[in-house]
């Protein structure tokens, strides 16, 4: 399996940093699943990170703990894309597979609580070299 994200590609929690209009970074610890050289994140549809990604797809990734504290110094620049419904369904499947029982429980509970449109997948690709 191709992993262009270093430790962030295999970490249990990933610090996903998005950027506000003024360039201020905002980091959030998320679950992520690596598949075919891309990282997939699952989140609430109306979250601020989704709004920021729609406006500016540039993100950074870093391995972290559950509270968002980085666990290493490797920061990876990447590009995020908000997925459509089939892509979000695929992301849910990847998260359930990667996180086993806890992933299945959280994703299933969210589907019951919010419905299929309440959460969305985000696909993250490594930044293109300049």
From TrEMBL:
A UniProt-annotated Pfam family: PNPOx_N
Q: Which InterPro entries match?
A: F420H2_bilvrd_red/Heme_oxyg, PPOX_F420-dep_Rv2061_put, Pyridox_Oxase_N, Split_barrel_FMN-bd
What keywords sit in the KW lines?
Oxidoreductase
SUPFAM superfamilies, A to Z: FMN-binding split barrel
GO cellular component labels:
cytosol
The source's superkingdom equals Bacteria
Query: Where does the Pyridoxamine 5'-phosphate oxidase N-terminal domain start and stop, copy by copy?
Result: 12-99
Query: Which molecular function terms from Gene Ontology are attached?
Result: coenzyme F420 binding; oxidoreductase activity, acting on the CH-CH group of donors
PANTHER family, per database record: HEME OXYGENASE HI_0854-RELATED, PYRIDOXAMINE 5'-PHOSPHATE OXIDASE FAMILY PROTEIN
Query: What name appears for this protein in its UniProt entry?
Result: Pyridoxamine 5'-phosphate oxidase N-terminal domain-containing protein
According to its UniProt entry, this protein's organism is Nocardia aurantia
């Amino acid at each position: 399996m191709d992993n262009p994200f270093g430790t962030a590609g295999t970490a249990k929690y990933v610090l996903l940093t998005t950027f506000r209009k003024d360039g201020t970074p905002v980091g959030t610890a998320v679950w992520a699943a690596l598949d075919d050289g891309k990282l997939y994140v699952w989140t609430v549809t109306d979250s601020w990170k989704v709004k920021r990604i729609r406006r500016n797809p540039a993100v950074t990734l870093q391995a972290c703990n559950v509270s968002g504290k980085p666990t290493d110094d490797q920061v990876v620049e990447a590009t995020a894309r908000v997925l459509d419904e089939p892509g979000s369904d695929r992301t849910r499947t990847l998260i359930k597979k990667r996180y086993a029982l806890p992933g299945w429980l959280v994703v299933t509970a969210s589907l019951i609580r919010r419905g299929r449109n309440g959460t969305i997948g985000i696909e993250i690709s490594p930044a293109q070299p300049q």
